[in-house]
Amino acid sequence: MANSETADSPMAILVDDDAEVRDSLQELLRSVGIESMSFSSAQDVLSAKLPSRPGCIVLDVRMPGLSGIDLQQLLAAKDIQTPIIFLTGHGDIAMSVEAMKAGALDFLTKPVRDQAFLDAVSTAIATDIARRAALAVAQKNSALYESLTPREREVLSFVVSGAMNKEIAFGLGISEITVKLHRSNMMKKMNARSVSHLFNVCQSLPADIQCRLRIASAAGKPIARPGARGHFAN
Amino acid sequence: MANSETADSPMAILVDDDAEVRDSLQELLRSVGIESMSFSSAQDVLSAKLPSRPGCIVLDVRMPGLSGIDLQQLLAAKDIQTPIIFLTGHGDIAMSVEAMKAGALDFLTKPVRDQAFLDAVSTAIATDIARRAALAVAQKNSALYESLTPREREVLSFVVSGAMNKEIAFGLGISEITVKLHRSNMMKKMNARSVSHLFNVCQSLPADIQCRLRIASAAGKPIARPGARGHFAN
DNA sequence: AGGCAGCCTATACCCAAGTCTAGGGTGCCT
DNA sequence: AGGCACCCTAGACTTGGGTATAGGCTGCCT
User: Which residues pair with B37 in a beta bridge?
Assistant: First the structure.
């Protein structure tokens, strides 16, 4: 039926060693219009090229070879953050708690009520759509940041920390006018019209870059300061 | 032993209907220098005045009257966000998953290994310390925000959205010079030296206030704009 | 050797932001 | 009626940020 949309329609990934389970779940998902693909082992998932579509991964825990829990960790190590739902007949509390702490979105037990399963999958897909949207923004902005020269990045650090041009100039040991140049170029590259916009762009930047920003700007210390520069005092 | 420190030392709260369990856990915690108080029912916790110290709540699930799960929800409703650890002999996977989804930090089963219990409590306490630190900052900044007049709050919204004074003036239907006045007063009250600092202050503001900011500033739209004002173009 | 990117500097000018002073209006509380 | 908080406005001025133009330096690639 619905097959023409290989684009961005959600895709559930089922991993279970029991073919019967896979088929019935796929059928169930198809009945509500959710496409799915299935694997019979964790290894198959790792070696397969997963589609870059919003979706979720439904994992059995006990399988020959790698367990579902193992796969969860391996996927995390590969930085694959597609939401994971566990679905198992052989689990215990400790296992479910570990899985949840490791970021699983849900942990269902077989036999599962159809509606409970569909709800979990829907929630997971919605989560993934939101996650991917945020990721897309982060990557776009990350590319902007990468286009900056070293100097421009230093200036950026100072700017987001609230330093004035003259402070930046002092901090970098260059003239204020040069700071203006770098700053101006940086703002253009970051596609920011004002400091506020710059902040918004920086906000949705990968965590590692944000760290670099804060560390670098530690020199330019902001925060408080009662009678700083004849401004507020008086 | 350690009793003189009623100040900010951590305090675990144990809730279990079994006096023997309570006593042995308290003893265990005392052995590693963690103070604790215990309750025999969920009702007692709700009616008691909980100490405002960093800590965690250790909850049995099955108790006469309100269950641990019930108590978790009631505490959440009362906006008490002290980390919760479940410790139960009568749980199932569904229950543990629901508890974890509802924000529980851990879900242990009796009999519990001493070390596992202590680890969970330590982690929870550390979490709470961090949470409370963040909360303290949020409350301080929230107080700053509350001290603003309605006009100043409107101006703040525009400022964080990157609007220029003249845009703010147009948006509010007042003169640019009045905007400067409000803006200046607002910056002083918010204890911010620059737009960047203002942003940092706003960042650590309660979520509800941040919402108000964004909604209000939706009028002043930021983002992109190729040839906006003769600046970049040319 | 020439071209290019990145870095630094300078002068000059414009505009946006912030301050100071000095007013006028409203509504609320005592 | 006076005091106060909040809101609005104006003119004159200072400072900070941004642009344009114009130049010199290094190092890398072709």
Answer: B13
The DSSP H or E segment spanning A11 is strand A11-15
Distance between CA atoms of residues B96 and A96, nearest Å: 7
Chain C positions with any atom < 7 A from a protein CB? 5-12, 16-20
Q: Which two tokens stand for residue B171?
A: 């948006």
**pLDDT range class, residue B50, cuts 50, 70, 90:** confident
Contact criterion met (CB < 8 Å) for A107 and B97: yes
pLDDT-derived band at A211, boundaries 50, 70, 90: confident
- B106 beta partners: B85
Q: Give yes or no for a cis peptide into A54 (omega within 30° of 0).
A: no
Strand arrangement of the beta sheet that strand A84-88 belongs to = A35-39, A11-15, A55-59, A84-88, A106-109
At the top level of CATH, which class does the domain A147-220 belong to?
Answer: mainly alpha
Predicted structure pTM score: 0.83
Q: How far off is chain A from B107, nearest CA to CA, in Å? A: 6
A positions 13-42 inside 8 Å of B (CB): none
Query: How many C-beta atoms lie closer than 10 Å to residue A218's C-beta?
Result: 9
Enumerate the β-bridge partners of residue A37. Answer: A13
- Domain segments of chain B as ranges: 11-136, 147-220
Yes or no, beta carbons of A197 and B223 under 8 Å apart:
yes
Count CB neighbours of A184 within 10 A.
Answer: 14
Q: Tell me if B11-136 shares its fold with B147-220.
A: no
State the burial class of residue B37 (Cβ atoms within 10 Å of its Cβ: 0-12, 13-18, 19+): middle
Residue B54 preceded by cis peptide, ω within 30: no
Distance CA B162, CA A120 (A): 40
What digits encode the pLDDT tens for the residues A151-199? Answer: 899 999 999 988 999 999 998 888 899 999 999 999 999 999 899 989 8
pLDDT confidence tier of residue B5, bands split at 50, 70 and 90: low
Does A11-136 carry CATH code 3.40.50.880? no
Range from A63-72, A199-208, B214-223 carrying the lowest mean pLDDT = B214-223
Across all strands, nucleotide nearest B187 (CA–C1'): C18
Mind telling me how many Å the CA of A100 is from chain B's nearest CA? 7
B188 Rama class: left (phi>0) / alpha (psi -120 to 50) / beta: alpha
